[in-house]
Amino acid sequence: MEGSPIPVLTVPTAPYEDQRPTGGGGLRRPTVLFEGQRNYLPNFIQSVLSSIDLRDRQGCTMVVGSDGRYFSRTATEIVVQMAAANGIGRLIIGQNGILSTPAVSCIIRKIKAAGGIILTASHCPGGPGGEFGVKFNVANGGPAPDVVSDKIYQISKTIEEYAICPDLRIDLSRLGRQEFDLENKFKPFRVEIVDPVDIYLNLLRTIFDFNAIKSLLTGPSQLKIRVDAMHGVMGPYVRKVLCDELGAPANSAINCVPLEDFGGQHPDPNLTYATTLLEAMKGGEYGFGAAFDADGDRYMILGQNGFFVSPSDSLAVIAANLSCIPYFRQIGVRGFGRSMPTSMALDRVAKSMKVPVYETPAGWRFFSNLMDSGRCSLCGEESFGTGSDHLREKDGLWAVLVWLSIIAARKQSVEEIVRDHWAKYGRHYYCRFDYEGLEPKATYYIMRDLEALVTDKSFIGQQFAVGSHIYSVAKTDSFEYVDPVDGTVTKKQGLRIIFSDASRLIFRLSSSSGVRATIRLYAESYERDPSGHDQEPQAVLSPLIAIALKISQIHERTGRRGPTVIT
């Protein structure tokens, strides 16, 4: 600390009406809004900080991290200046502002912080023309529950001023402690810059048998892997954990330098955007491939020759093989959780293991209550997210290490493991169609009309004939969730059509960017007979898709000829 105390200023402002968090305490918008609209970021940060009770906020510790996208450094500086002015006592920040979402959750739980602020727009593009986001995680390390998000929104609608220390400057590149004397504050404000990987890596060491994984990656029958960080936050984690710690050759890891625009690519680990990895895997040289999204909570698994493991299959395979992980051998398995749109492959594993499955709305925050209450050990979503009760976030690198542990224990390839799983439990054919960038008003009317149609009593029993297939409607509903822990009810979480053969169609509205909307269409069909396990999912599901398009009229009402993304 040098010189005179840093002044704390109160700056007048006016509210914005569009700062409702979209779930989990997150606000995701085009970067130009955050960068160009006066006080847009300070307003939201103040709303987040004010949502913490004053007695809990004064002198507390919080964690701050980002996925390194454009505007992150400027935003981090503003967060630090406002945290200091609002009475936060200490901030833990990753070096250069970098911390993966799982690492933020890990550190919050490790040091018992009051919460964390993550600067990320997840898998959305970066750069000046991309998207930016702010996400608030609470003291359990998980995304803010709806009651907190609602509180943040209410504050944002009436905000008149925010507090900031504009003269406070920190060096994000220098590891260690930095202290600042503030006006009218009895104690100095402290910032600690930490290695972004170390604390998280120490947690992983307690979960996995690193020697077994290292033998797999370095032994005489070495498994050649290819891991794509997609120029997001995961580069330093991939290099330090997989290469330095577990012995994978340095050239196993690609796109490991975090870039503000993610190299001009879409940092979304799926078959549409992770094409560099997919092409490398198709060549047959590598036996295992993985990709991560921008902030490191989502992942994709590929086997040799580009064999794709769907997120729902990955979740089910992990569930069936948890005994390969020392952590679960020690503490056991209490239950599983999946989001409603995720395929029911997990349910079949749970039934064989005699553990419960909790079906929740989309959004990781719904799993936190289940894990905090000891009901749930493993959770997952069809949107490439899986995690366990070691954190309160989905965790991409954890999932990759689980897969490597399974391969090491079973001494089989990715494809062999998945095919054995299908042979034992049957195969759930599954796909998701995303209609992105739609006008929100149009999507509202499409979903409103569709709900009126499918929830009408006369819809039950209707039959749809497509080619040689006849589907009879057995059940429909607008999904709602009653939290078994606190009784909270969450309504209108998607429309479900369940047919007599247990096939499912699901329609769900998503508006994570808040500017444009997305309608997601999900189709699922179960095949028990192993002779039917080698078909293309879209071919199997085409009759269901045809029914969905017919009853929704989505192409006619949006002017689209097809979905933006198919997964």
From TrEMBL:
Pfam families: PGM1_C_vert_fung, PGM_PMM_I, PGM_PMM_II, PGM_PMM_III. Residues 1-25 are annotated as: Disordered. Coiled coil: none annotated. Residues 23-162, 200-305, 313-425 form the Alpha-D-phosphohexomutase alpha/beta/alpha domain. It comes from the Eukaryota. Keywords: Magnesium, Metal-binding, Phosphoprotein. Belongs to the phosphohexose mutase family. PANTHER family: PHOSPHOGLUCOMUTASE-LIKE PROTEIN 5, PHOSPHOHEXOMUTASE FAMILY MEMBER. This is Phosphoglucomutase-like protein 5. It comes from Microtus ochrogaster. The gene is Pgm5.
